[in-house]
Design brief:
Among the domains are: about 200 residues, ANL, N-terminal domain (Rossmann fold, 3-Layer(aba) Sandwich); about 70 residues, Luciferase, domain 3, CATH 2.30.38; about 100 residues, 2-Layer Sandwich (GMP Synthetase, Chain A, domain 3), CATH 3.30.300. It contains 15 helices and 28 strands. Helix 8 links the parallel strand 12 and strand 13. The longest helix is centred in the N-terminal third of the chain and has 17 residues. The protein starts with 7 loop residues before the first strand and ends with a helix.
Length: about 525
């Protein structure tokens, strides 16, 4: 606080809180939580969009050694009911609404008992057996809530039992090994899994990333202003938030992430960085009123952004992004030095970071394989999760403590990692295997491409036909024949999509974590594909 106390930590809708104000409010909230019986290991659910309240709530949980359960604002009532029950949430801190989402109505749908509950009493409901109370960010609280988040802060501030001295004593007993955060994965094919990390994993991971010039949230320094588009309740946004706090930067919050709104935020808030993928930056540049060069002054917030901005890449060098996952608290591979990919490893995803360890195993025998032999990537190391909540270790890790990632990869003789796609996700066309990810990566390098999805379509002659759906900038001037011709110089003939369809960026169906939902996209494009093929 001595160094950054008067600086802005977070700004949203023109209102800012300094580091000192956030410290004071999170301390009061921590004391309020203690007064509600929350202690080390207690499960505290946080259901909020990016903003000051999310940061204050998370910091309060960490100060007292509680487990912050980060709940997605995209959860449906069914998913919310599952996560709150699965995580054994005892106290819930929630926003009333966000954009078009009404969380009061959604929680009442998830837990019907709430409709008849008197918030003055502890909740005791079979559909959420550990949940005892809920506190709503806004002043307009439903009858079943105990009060507002501000009320809980006031309880802590006014408490003569849970004093600042007692809070300091509690904080002194919080250890790096204490469970700190539970992040639910955003899988679209199964119920989300609760990934549990201890406090040391997240802090040491961010400290490592901040020591490199090339990895999120590296290239961030005291006084920088980051417009963070990833949610804090997922690992990318969380790492960026913690990195900003470590160095004394400011996080800028914008609820609506449509390209037009982000462009307005860039003009209004003057960020030094805008986080996100090259596709999201291209979408901003494709806005009708975008002025040439408006993004040129931004610092790159990741290696993929460096590659996207030719000004920051020497010659024609290609810089690849990192491979990572929630289970490893973000990236486990990459090029931390910031140097371009070496010529002999141009298509690799770098080497394992820090003390992370790899082994590639045969998918059938589960035995390790040698260099340059594809198999399933297994990882272990200091940033690996404690496990999936309510899963035995033997259900998650192998006998040597490795976690099977489900990624098809191989390691070369020098230890560079090559990603070939998700297991089971290969396209089988005319007897050959095609990685959708490889084709997508090459298409993304073509001028004017904003985003792309590649998927298989059944075909009588080929078995499966490779199809690509591409979003282009409005001035790209590229048609199907032209894009195919460009790809023929980059891909083997059997990998070039047989059909390329074009679709506006905003019409791609996506998961809450902004991943393209390929099955939904394929179903949406099927009538058009059939019609164009017939004609």
């Amino acid at each position: 606080m001595e160094r950054h106390g008067s600086k802005d930590l977070v700004s949203k809708e023109g209102e800012a809180l300094t580091y000192g104000q956030v410290d004071e409010r999170s301390a009061n909230l921590a004391r309020g939580l203690l007064a509600q019986g929350v202690g080390k290991g207690s499960r505290v659910g946080i259901l909020m969009p990016n903003g000051p309240e999310w940061i204050i709530a998370w910091l309060a949980t960490q100060r007292i050694g509680a487990l912050g359960v980060t709940l997605s604002t995209f959860f449906t009532a069914r998913e919310l009911a599952y996560a709150v029950r699965n995580a054994d949430v005892g106290i819930l801190l929630a926003s009333r609404s966000y954009l078009r989402n009404d969380y009061v109505a959604r929680l009442e749908e998830a837990f019907p008992t709430l409709a008849t509950h008197d918030g003055k009493q502890d909740l005791a409901a079979s559909e959420c057996p550990f949940l005892r109370s809920a506190w709503i960010v806004d002043d307009d609280v439903p009858s079943w809530a105990r009060g507002s988040l501000a009320d809980l802060e006031k309880i802590g501030e006014a408490s003569t039992l849970y004093t600042p001295a007692l809070l300091a004593a509690v904080e002194s007993e919080v250890a790096p090994s204490d469970l700190g955060i539970m992040i639910y994965t955003s899988g679209s094919t199964a119920l989300p899994k609760g990934v549990v990390h201890n406090q040391a994993a997240s802090m040491s991971k961010v400290a490592f990333l901040m020591s490199t010039p090339n990895m999120i949230p590296a290239n961030t320094h005291e006084g920088d202003r980051l417009l963070v588009v990833q949610p804090y309740f997922w690992v990318g946004g969380f790492l960026t938030l913690v990195g900003c706090i470590m160095v004394g930067a400011t996080v800028l919050c914008e609820d609506d992430h449509k390209p037009e709104r982000l462009l307005e935020a860039i003009r209004r808030d003057k960020p030094t960085h805008v986080t996100g993928t090259p596709a999201s930056l291209k979408a901003i540049m494709a806005c009708k009123d975008y002025k040439e060069g408006e993004l040129s002054g931004l610092k790159a917030s990741s290696s993929s952004q460096r590659a996207f901005n030719p000004q920051n890449v020497p010659g024609n060098a290609r810089i690849w992004d990192s491979l990572g996952m929630t289970e490893t608290m973000g990236p486990h591979s990459g090029y931390p030095s910031g140097d371009p990919s070496p010529p002999q490893a141009m298509n690799s995803w770098g080497k394992s970071l820090f003390k992370m360890e790899y082994k590639i195993v045969d998918t059938e025998t589960r035995e390790p394989v040698g260099p340059n032999v594809p198999g399933e990537l297994c990882v272990r190391g200091p940033w690996l999760m404690e496990g999936f909540y309510k899963k035995l270790r033997r259900e998650v890790f192998d006998a040597d403590g490795y976690y099977p990632t489900g990624d098809k990869c191989y390691l070369d003789d020098e230890g560079y990692l090559y990603f070939q796609g998700r297991l089971g996700g290969m396209i089988k066309t005319a007897g050959a295997n095609v990685s959708p990810e490889e084709v997508e990566e090459v298409i993304r390098l073509q001028p004017g491409v904003v985003d792309v999805a590649v998927y298989p379509v059944p075909d009588e002659k080929l078995g499966q036909m490779v199809v690509a759906v591409v979003a282009m900038t409005s001035d790209a001037g590229m048609d199907e024949a032209g894009l195919k011709a460009a790809l023929k110089g980059e891909l083997s003939a059997f990998k070039v999509p047989k059909r390329i369809l074009f679709l506006p960026f905003e019409e791609f169906p996506r998961t809450p974590s902004n991943k393209i939902r390929r099955p939904a996209l394929a179903a949406m494009m099927e009538p058009r594909l059939a019609k164009e093929t017939a004609s």
